[in-house]
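Here is one chain, start to finish.
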Amino acid sequence: MISMGHHFHVRDAANDFLKFGAVGVLNFLIDFGVLNALMFFSGISSGAFFSVAKAVAYFVANTNSYFFNKRWTFKSRAPATRKEYGTFLFFSLIGALLNVGVSSLIVGVVSQPQSIGGPLWANIASLAGAGVLVIWNFFTYRTYVFRIR
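Its structure:
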């Protein structure tokens, strides 16, 4: 097994990353499902209600992410605490800001190729932001939240 330092093993990190990705897919489905359920039952899909519904959906998915990543991805057996969840939420929110920031920077500053339409360019920027988010969240959760080194 390739190892780097005392506690970091590439195979373990790769396995954790695959699990992290599976949890991310589940979180997306939860976020999407909660958001659409709230829109369906309220009949509202725009304005301030949409923002509130999206925040609720994010929080539900993020809470799921905390428990699945804690127990399954990073195999932490320590009791869940408010402090640990607060740290998790702190790094998640920084990740969300990075995601939006990178996406917005690409859309607002990087020259859009003439052969790519606006919506496609925005989606490419969004994927870039999501890529930064995945790397940020994986590293910070593994290193600072669940203390896997």
